[in-house]
Design brief:
The chain has a domain at about 5-130: Alpha-Beta Horseshoe (Leucine-rich repeat, LRR (right-handed beta-alpha superhelix)). The chain is about 30% helix and about 10% strand. The protein has helices spanning about 55-65, 85-90, 100-115, 135-150, 150-155, 175-180; strands at about 20, 45, 95-100, 120-125, 125, 155-160, 165-170. Strands 1-2-3-4-5 form a five-stranded mixed sheet. Strands 6-7 form a two-stranded antiparallel sheet. Helix 3 (about 100-115) links the parallel strand 3 and strand 4 (about 120-125). The longest helix is centred in the C-terminal third of the chain and has 16 residues, at about 135-150.
């Protein structure tokens, strides 16, 4: 875990405050007890972990379908070694979670019953007080547009080490700046 948190400067698991585990399905790990040691973890990204939500039978059927036509009589598949509820119980200090929509809906439904993630304030940057799925979707669309508004208002965002969000910095462009527009493809 320290490898994934190396940018934050953490030397021990207890010092980790922000962690990006996107695309790294920890449910395949043999032992996840080390997650309880991350007592200062506030920001967690577990997006792009689609296998995390699939039951064992679905994973087996997908592996079987992928093996069709290969001529193999036997096939192996990776099964999750832990239940997602057990996984989520390990993150008692997390306040801000980024995850896939499937897990977001699951947490919104099951969190009051299962009592995990007790300090959670936001999922995908939307407050937990917004419980209706349509409202949550609309809120995410608004946040997405707000994150792009800098292109039109003459500002940019300065990222700070160890901080998940960044601060807006406004500027006034000169003749050259007005001629340059921001985009994915350079226009100079």
């Amino acid at each position: 875990m320290l490898f994934y948190a190396k940018d934050s400067g953490a030397k021990t698991l207890e010092e980790i405050t922000s962690l990006d585990l996107s695309g790294k399905n920890l449910l395949f790990a043999d032992d996840i007890s080390f997650l309880k040691k991350m007592t200062n973890l506030k920001h967690l990204d577990i997006s792009d972990n689609i296998d995390m939500y699939k039951p064992s039978l679905m994973l087996e059927n997908e592996a079987k379908k992928a093996a069709e036509g290969s001529g193999a009589d036997h096939f192996d598949f990776l099964d999750n070694k832990h239940d997602r509820d057990v996984f989520l119980e390990h993150f008692s200090s997390v306040e801000h979670l980024v995850c896939d929509i499937i897990l977001e809906v699951y947490i919104m439904e099951m969190r009051p019953k299962k009592n995990y993630l007790p300090n959670l304030k936001t999922i995908n940057k939307v407050a937990l007080t917004v419980t209706d799925l349509t409202e949550r979707t609309n809120e995410k669309k608004i946040l997405e547009q707000l994150s792009k508004i800098w292109m039109f208002t003459g500002q940019y965002r300065l990222a700070k080490p160890g901080v998940m969000d960044s601060d807006p910095t406004f500027f006034i462009t000169d003749e050259v700046g007005c001629a340059i527009s921001h985009g994915d493809k350079p226009n100079l």
